[in-house]
Design brief:
46% strand; 13-stranded mixed sheet; 3 domains; Pdz3 Domain; 385 residues; 4 helices; 27 strands; Cathepsin D, subunit A, domain 1
């Protein structure tokens, strides 16, 4: 009997290791992905079957929709005050899902946040968001060329990686913050930015960095205006403040110099490098080793084309409003927050706001009709609404 007692812990340990290896395979696993609305969409296994999730390295925790939460009959495990990327905080329901499956990797009894169905992010036809909590023990390779997200347990499983060419990144709430260096007009500036696949842009700097880039003469082709910020988070809120646009002549990211990078200001509290970085090469993130690679394409592509817009749209209270006004000729004619009532001849007052977010609304004329604060209406021309 004493011999059995001595061997029992060893037997339990062997079973535990077997279970662990079953959930974390030694080889690589691949997740086919689609780029939709500037987001990386992957299939995630759930107790309700495969579901579409946004693959978001900028999210701290994995999130499910309120609809999936109800469908699975999950039970609330409490609530917590959770912040979005703009620093706004609100209380969300917390739950545990029986399992989530990323390719060959399975995560049992996993904690998730429940995002209300009122959030416009669900307009994109997804049921959840894959956060960095599912990636923290993996090496993740993301390529726009082969429409794959690959996960491995060791960076050496990717044969084309040279550790000496990696850069170290800071890990904040499990997310990768990488060093950037901006050059222009003989001046230089260093800062950090979150690599955020949940962002459809290239580089968005917070107001403090944008202002310093302007003061140092690095940011060129600068435009400033007031505007509403569009919201896809759970609060569906908008706020008026200054917006900034410009171009950085040289931006160094992970040892690769990117020329003429368009810059926008984020309304959040952190700088972000978004999916636009994949225009220049393949990204590999070694979460355990805190290493980051940008494997550039053989030829440096041209800077991404940024459509010229004179008026941008935001969503407030479920209805389209004037966002930023970039055309000086429209000053005093329309203003941020004015309601948009028609696009061309299309009456949009009853249109589903999700249709705007998905880019499905197309007017028959390049103009919008706006209801101003005093109740009067005016029709103005638009470019690339």
């Amino acid at each position: 009997m004493s011999a059995i007692r001595r061997f029992l812990p060893l037997v339990c340990m062997l079973f535990a290791l077997q279970g662990l290896s079953a959930r974390k395979p030694a080889g690589r696993t691949h997740l086919p992905c689609r780029i939709e609305y500037g987001k990386y969409i992957v299939q995630v296994g759930t107790p309700a079957g495969p579901r579409r999730f946004i693959f978001d390295t900028g999210a701290t925790r994995t999130t499910v929709s309120e609809s999936l939460y109800r469908e699975l009959g999950l039970v609330a495990a409490g609530d917590a005050e959770v912040g979005d990327f703009e620093g706004y905080r609100d209380r969300l329901v917390l739950a545990r899902i029986p399992f989530l499956q990323l390719g060959g990797m399975r995560f049992d009894d996993w904690p998730v946040d429940v995002l209300p169905d009122s959030s416009y992010v669900w307009c994109l036809g997804v049921d959840g968001i894959v956060g960095s909590d599912l990636l923290r023990r993996s090496v993740v390779r993301i390529s726009a060329a082969d429409s794959l997200v690959s996960l491995a347990t060791d960076y050496r499983q990717f044969v084309d990686l040279d550790r000496r060419k990696a850069v170290r990144f800071q890990r904040v709430s499990g997310r990768p913050f990488i060093h950037l260096r901006a050059d222009g007009s003989g001046r230089r500036m260093d800062f950090y930015a979150l690599f955020d696949t949940g962002s459809s842009g290239l580089f968005d700097c917070r107001y403090r960095e944008c202002t310093e880039l302007i003061d140092r003469g690095i940011l060129r082709k600068v435009r400033r205006t007031s505007g509403y910020a569009a919201r896809l988070g759970w609060t569906n809120r908008s706020s008026v403040r200054e917006a900034v646009r410009g171009t950085i002549p040289r931006l160094e990211v992970a040892g690769t110099v990117l020329p003429e990078i368009p810059v926008g200001e984020t309304y959040g509290s952190i700088n972000k490098i978004g999916c636009g970085l994949l225009h220049y090469g393949t990204v590999v993130i070694d979460y355990p080793g805190r290493r980051f690679w940008l494997l550039p394409h053989a030829a440096t592509p041209d800077a991404p084309d940024v459509p010229l817009r004179n008026v941008a749209v935001a969503i407030e209270g479920g209805r389209p409003v004037v966002g930023q006004v970039w055309d000086d000729a429209l000053d005093g004619i329309v203003a941020p927050g004015d309601r948009i009532v028609r696009i061309g001849t299309l009456d949009v007052t009853q249109v589903d706001p999700c249709a705007f977010i998905r880019g499905e609304i197309r007017g028959d004329k390049p103009e919008i009709t706006v209801e101003r604060k005093d109740g009067s209406r005016v029709t103005v021309p638009i470019k690339n609404l």
